[in-house]
Amino acid sequence: MANLSIRNIRKTYPNGVEVLKGINLDIADGEFLILVGGSGCGKSTLLNMIAGLESVTEGEIAIGAKRVNDLPPKDRDIAMVFQSYALYPSMSVRENIAFGLSLRKVPKAEQEATIARVAKLLQIEALLDRRPAQLSGGQRQRVAMGRALAREPQLFLFDEPLSNLDAKLRVEMRSEIKLLHKRLGITTVYVTHDQIEAMTLGDKIAVMKDGVVQQFGTPDEIYQRPTNTFVASFMGSPPMNLIPATLAAEGDRVVARVSVGERGAITATLPLSPSPSALTAWMNRKVLLGLRPEQISDTVRASESVQISIPVTLTEITGADALVLTKIGGVSVVCRLHPQSVGARDWVNVQVDMTHAVLFDQQSGQRID
Amino acid sequence: MSKLSRACIYAVLILAALYTLAPLWVMVATSLKSLDEIREGSLIAAPLAPSLSSWGKAWSSACSGVRCEGLQPFFWNSLIMTIPAVLISTFVGALNGYVLTQWRFRGSEVLFTALLVGCFIPFQVVLLPMARTLGAIGLSDSVIGLIFVHVVYGLAFTTLFFRNYYVSIPADLMKAARVDGAGFFTIFWRILMPISGPIFVVCIIWQFTQIWNDFLFGVAFAGSDSQPITVALNNLVRTSTGVKEYNVDMAAAIIAALPTLFVYIVAGKYFVRGLTAGAVKG
Ligand SMILES: Nc1ncnc2c1ncn2[C@@H]1O[C@H](COP(=O)(O)OP(=O)(O)O)[C@@H](O)[C@H]1O
Ligand SMILES: [Mg+2]
Questions:
Q1: Which tens digit of pLDDT belongs to each residue from B229-249?
Q2: Taking a C-beta distance cutoff of 8 angstroms, is the pair A281, A319 a contact?
Q3: Which of A67, A96, A265, B22 has its CA 20 to 30 A from that of B57?
Q4: Virtual CA dihedral for B160, B161, B164, B165, nearest 10 degrees?
Q5: Does B89 lie in the same domain as B19?
Q6: Structural domain contains residue B29
Q7: Res B273 pLDDT > 80
């Protein structure tokens, strides 16, 4: 049981490339931290540094208030699950699970008990005497988890453990990992490039890009109040709409004016609520108005909802929702409606819920508060 | 495929097989004939009264230089030289390959390239410097010296074999083992060795053939009582008292070649498999 603290971590590989540029993260005991970001942003590097598999160029890593920078992996009391599962090919499932235990001189009887326990937990009892080559992808994944669970570590590390599974199995295993975490309460760091995995699993999410944490917060904060346009478009599917708008004062409120339609002949006025006082500097300037697809819908969600009429470019029925593609502010915008409210019409009326609207600086992409 | 083209292919294959096997047949047949029969009969005819007497002579009483004890003592010389040299060079090559792929360090690629160049250095170039080195470390004219030469010369090849085999092992496997608490040698013994069977076979066959068949290093560095069988065979064929005993020469040549033949037959199917396998299935 331990908290994890990462202070000003930098990593420069021997070839001179700086891969991590000052990372700061803190999670409490028992929390589930997600590192999410595109390929090559340094997620695995950071995880390997926490594990002790890569050296720390600069900064400090502490597990349970103990500085671990110079400890080898085996002395950090961690367990790790890899994307490729990394099962020992010549050993049976049983031997794979027992390997770490026997290296730690755990008595034979205790090893047997542990193997029985994790095999039961992960329902792999029937596979114990097979070799990794005789297992399916999903079974290998379970065994890899079992090997990690056998050690009852202070800290669990996962590096994209589900990305080699097919879609159905991935969803199943995702819930199972979540349940396991609930049951065992072990502090976990989980790397993924899949934002849905990030949103569903994490207590805290760190969104990374180019070796920098763009935002660190709860899934809700990340989803509702992304700090910049990268986070806004990376998290959420479909991503947040970023609509060019002009701010203006109208009475005692601030409104965002956007053009609607292909030619932009119609202008819609959307009152911001609440109108932060910091916006005075932005009057009559162009900004990006961030609206999630479900904030442009046919449901009246808040008293602040504004009704506007939009042209329909394309409709995609996903089952529960109809994703309507339209043109607002000169860019393509996705709205989430009920399937029955879109017929074969060219224009539909939608409600824009402005309570959770976010504004971004067009130049820097940073959120305006 | 038409019957005709299939027949053509078989014809070509059979001819090729006959062509390669013909010398062996001539050797076996001649070794079983008496000298009279060799003089009168045809080269490829089967022996009329096969006899193993020339084999016995080649093994235990033919004269090679001044010693007339057959090939037997030299056969053991070759064996006690070849077996340690093969095992040591293979094992060190495995360790080298392991380090060069899984424990890369600054300059490891340069080192590997340098080792690779070692594969292309001709024997002759090594002779004089090696003679001086052996003299300096006091191993001239000894079996141990000869083993040393073969190990050094063979390392470039064995390292190359193992490096190319181990390079396909995923880095995650090493990481998982390190997290589990395994160190340098534990990973080598417990994880790599069990999956290295095919490449060990390839390497051992290659090294055994090279070292057993070597003549130049044997001539240059072996003492008179540590000469390998290849050198003794040469002396035996060239030592003649009056008549040239072709049957004994042939028997001696086959005896000298038998161990490599044996190794191929025992391990041959792994040889091809190991050369083509490479990838390690997890
Ligand atoms: N051993 C290494 N030497 C040099 N560069 C590396 C090494 N490992 C990773 N990198 C580079 O560091 C960057 C981040 O890699 P990684 O942490 O694996 O990214 P991610 O897991 O987010 O996809 C990549 O650009 C990658 O090419
Ligand atoms: Mg990665």
A1: 999 999 888 877 778 888 999
A2: no
A3: B22
A4: -150
A5: no
A6: yes
A7: no
| Chain A CA closest to residue B107 | A14
| Contact indicator for A243, A333 with CB cutoff of 8 Å | yes
- What are the pocket residues of ligand 1 if the criterion is a CB atom closer than 6 Å to any ligand atom? A 13, 15, 17, 19, 37, 39-45
Same domain, B216 and B261: yes
pLDDT band at B39 (very low <50, low <70, confident <90, very high): confident
Contact check, Cβ <8 Å, B179/A88: no
Q: Which residue in the set B106, B186, B195 is minimally distant from A90, CB to CB?
A: B195
In-domain check, residue B63: no
Tell me how far apart the alpha carbons of residues A144 and A121 are, in angstroms, rounded to a whole number.
Answer: 13
CA distance, residue B265 to nearest chain A CA (Å): 26
- Asked whether A318 and A284 are in contact (CB, 8 A), the reply is no
Using alpha carbons only, what angle is made at residue A13 by residues A12 and A15, rounded to the nearest 5 degrees? 115
Atom of ligand 1 nearest to the CA of A45: 17
At A115, give phi and psi (nearest 5°): -60, -45
Domain annotation for chain A: domains and CATH numbers:
4-234 (3.40.50.300), 241-361 (no CATH)
Query: Residue B183 is part of which domain span?
Result: 72-276
Q: Which residues in chain B have Cβ-Cβ distances shorter than 8 Å to A85? A: 172, 282
Interface probe, candidates A50, A87, A99, chain B, greatest B C-beta count within 10 A: A99
The answer to whether position B81 is within a domain reads: yes
Count of other CB atoms within 10 angstroms of residue A106: 17
Q: Which residues pair with A34 in a beta bridge?
A: A190, A205
Categorize the per-residue pLDDT at B272 as very low, low, confident or very high, splitting at 50, 70 and 90.
low
Q: Are residues B144 and B246 in the same domain?
A: yes
Please name the amino acid found at residue B154. G
Contact list, A104 vs chain B (CB under 8 Å): 181
Amino acid at residue number B218: G
For residue A100, the chain B residues in CB contact (below 8 A) are: 179-181
Question: Residue A203 contacts by C-beta under 8 Å, 6 or more apart in sequence?
Answer: A27, A31, A32, A33, A218
| A294 confidence band (pLDDT: 50, 70, 90) | very high
Closest-CA distance of chain A to residue B55, Å: 46
For residue A96, give the 3-state DSSP assignment.
helix
Angle formed by the axes of helices A137-149 and A167-184, nearest 10°: 10
Contact A100 B180 (CB under 8 A): yes
Report percent pLDDT > 70 for chain A.
98
Instruction: Enter the tokens of residue A143.
Output: 């065994």
CB distance B282–A48 less than 8 Å?
no
CA atoms of A62 and A21, how far apart (whole Å): 18
Whether residues B44 and B76 share a domain: the answer is no
Give the number of beta-carbon pairs within 8 Å between A and B. Answer: 70
The answer on B148 and B32 residing in a single domain is no
Please tell me the total count of domains within chain B: 2
Same domain, residue pair B155 and B200: yes
A23 touches chain B (CB under 8 A): no
Q: Can you give the length of chain B in residues?
A: 282
Cβ–Cβ gap B182/A103 under 8 Å: yes
Tokens at residue A61, please? 């890593």
- Asked if the structure places residue B59 within a domain, the reply is no
What ipTM was predicted for this assembly? Answer: 0.87
B104 touches chain A (CB under 8 A): no
Q: What is the pLDDT of residues B70-108, one digit of tens each?
A: 899 999 999 999 999 999 999 999 999 999 999 888 888
Mutate to test the pocket of ligand 1, among A45, A50, A208 (most ligand atoms within 8 A of CB): A45
